[in-house]
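Re: [help] complex structure
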Amino acid sequence: DTEVTQTPKHLVMGMTNKKSLKCEQHMGHRAMYWYKQKAKKPPELMFVYSYEKLSINESVPSRFSPECPNSSLLNLHLHALQPEDSALYLCASSSQWGQMTSSNQPQHFGDGTRLSIL
Amino acid sequence: QKEVEQNSGPLSVPEGAIASLNCTYSDRVSQSFFWYRQYSGKSPELIMSIYSNGDKEDGRFTAQLNKASQYVSLLIRDSQPSDSATYLCAVNERQNFVFGPGTRLSVLP
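Output below.
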């Protein structure tokens, strides 16, 4: 079990559906991340939130919309996805981001949501 | 030019042997280095962090860092079949995590 909880574990959706992925951590971390991981590839960073503010958007298509309602929660809203968006979506958190003191902080990952687009 | 490089493998070692996994990085100002283990279909799990030159041991795992050579390695002693997984090297470059492509390790019984 990880200290970062992601729901749902699996999601199958059509290209016209709207769904959301959820992530929760109770470690008091102030940085949260969304990654996308395709089979046999490393995780690719999508978004970074620091103190509930979006700090990095790695040129992610607008059909992915992140939201950070509070310091413990991170959502990823999905709309009009394409089959190539099928992947494992990972949420991670770390104590801080964007400051020199944060460079020693590892990221802790949730179990991921396996997303399949029909 | 890739920022973090690893041999993709697969690296096959017999049970009980030492598995040696290597990682090189390009950004000289990187200060923090991490090894993650990822089983097939699962999420990455942090197994080692290292910040200073030299060796750091934790159980059967030893991380080695050489900043002058921009090289970090992970040794797994007494390898077990349960160690079979993909090992991801991650480097904290200017406050962004950069993952290597991962090395697939197979420990043969």
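The first strand of chain A starts at residue 4 and ends at 7.
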